Amino acid sequence: MAKNDPYAALRIKEFNIFLLVRFALVFGWSMQFIVIEWQVYALTNDKLSLGIIGLCEFLPAFLFAPFAGHIVDKKEKRNLFTICIALFSLISFGLFWLTSETIESSLKVNYILYCIYGLVFFGGVLRAFFGPTIFSLIALIVPKKIYPNAATWSSSTWKGASVFGALCGGFLIAWIGVHHTLGIIFLLVMLSLILVFGIKKKPILNKRTDESVLDSLKVGLKFVFSDKVVLGALTLDMIAVLFGGAVAIFAVFAKDVLDAGPRGFGFLNAALSSGSIITMVATTYLPITRNTGKKLLISVFCFGIFMIVFGASKLLWLSLIALFLSGVFDGVSMVIRQTILQLKTPDDMRGRVGAVNSMFVGSSNELGALESGIAAKLFGAPLAVILGGTVTLITVTTMSIKNTSLRELDLSKDIEEHEKDGV
């Protein structure tokens, strides 16, 4: 096996451009999520309203994902990515406009709230396309033998942008207010729209014109549900995000539990992601292709433990440490999952598999926000997080016993085969 090159993917110019585009988008999207959560909670002072935001984004992201996967496999990926970014800029501008002094003074609070929910819903539709498009585009930019390295850098960029987006979002709300923060987000989206043209158009690998939408969806779903490794990896991550996550109610912890204000709100969001990015960068030097399944199970289990610690904490410093450590293990889990999907997915099915991944994991972020909001309303935020972490631990334990294919997974042979083939 060839010596590991931690910078293999970074030696490809288009991949670097892709990372810049992704960083600008996620940085803006991360800040936008925080600003929306803060603004809606400020308008309503209702924990359930935070869950409604998640529902508004979950429903379209989940329902449109299968159709998005079919379209992504049939269309040219660079142009489709460009269209998604352009439409996202409209959402960012709409939120910027809604929070202006003129609009806030002339419209009723409920009307502004409904408009925010509407833009979030539109964002959910775009999310259905973003996931499979990005998943497919990476595979067309880098050769297969460096997929694990590319997945690591891509995930690290995503988490890094989340770190700084979350941190800056909280601080900018305090420094310049919600409206001007949303203006900065709009500029970031426009920057990504300009940068994306540095990536050349890519070939369409699925050229079957006789395949109906229904048949296409069936093929994609059949592949995922018949592969125990892929299905197991997606299920683990979905449960961890759906029940173990608490991002949607960080505003409640910052305001009511820890009395930390908007700055503490930013720190809480950043702590989770900062642990992830540090771990991801480390995995470029220490690949996770050996004993992959065991490493995935252990990382998700540890994530659940530290989320329980966070839920039980009443001290800001302890909460930040717990979130940081949960982020460390979340980072390992994310890199492993992306590597499994990239190596196990056929080229002509990447859009559909990416869509299923979006349904399992991407949409579970929004559904998890709804679950967190409802649980926080019923049981209180601390107990809601503790219960969610417990469900995560039970799921990992069950998966380790029932899914032997995932537990014994080792991807080193897959990498060696691609190196021999020179792809």
Can you put this structure into words, describing what you see?
GO terms for molecular function: transmembrane transporter activity. The chain crosses the membrane at residues 15-36, 48-68, 80-99, 111-140, 160-176, 182-199, 229-253, 265-288, 300-325, 374-397. With 423 residues, the protein is mainly α. It has two domains: 1-207, MFS general substrate transporter like domains (Growth Hormone, Chain: A); 211-422, MFS general substrate transporter like domains (Growth Hormone, Chain: A, Up-down Bundle), CATH 1.20.1250. It is built from 17 helices and no strands. The protein has helices at 13-44, 47-74, 77-98, 101-106, 109-141, 147-175, 177-195, 213-226, 228-244, 250-257, 261-285, 292-312, 316-344, 350-379, 381-402, 404-407, 412-421. Helix 1 runs antiparallel to helix 7, helix 2 (47-74) packs parallel to helix 5 (109-141) and helix 9 (228-244) packs parallel to helix 12. The longest helix has 33 residues, at 109-141. It is globular, with a radius of gyration of 21 Å. The protein starts with 12 loop residues before the first helix and ends with a helix.
